[in-house]
Amino acid sequence: MEQMTLGKRIAFLRKQRNLTQDDLAERMMVSPQAVSKWENDQSCPDIALLPELSKALGVTVDYLLSGEQEPAAQLVPNENRKPVEQMLLKVVIDSSDGDRVRINLPVMLIKLGLEMGAGDFGISMNQGTLQKIDFEQIFRLVECGVMGKLVEMDSDGDHVEIWVE
Description:
Blueprint: H1 6-16, H2 21-28, H3 32-39, H4 50-57, H5 61-66, E1 73-75, E2 88-94, E3 100-106, H6 107-115, H7 135-144, E4 146-155, E5 158-164
Antiparallel strand pairs: 1-4, 2-3, 2-5, 4-5
Helix pairs in contact: 2-3
């Protein structure tokens, strides 16, 4: 089977997210003709646009360029795991209202909070779909060796991702 070109991948991902070429062009601050040229493999997006384009299409830059994606979450063997002190929990929330929240939290801080008895701390959104992040459950997954994207959720225009790396 022939591998999908960058242009065909952009078109496929755009359609998957129910975006028109005009919608994507507006988000990327380019003309609709530029998007059309990308999708027809007549030109490629400028390299500086790739991070924002990948966000708009809901994929990584690696996936956008290669079509290959690492598993969302993976079980890492003991010998290949990073120490907890070097791990980071990343939370990305893009609300339908245009609010963007980015949290980078050292996993060691979560561990210390749990050890101090703060088992009921969390992040919540009142109007959004995310009500609470259960840090205790996340830490249990980390202790078992689960790494990568743990959660990706789209609901009512809100987008939430939770990663451990």
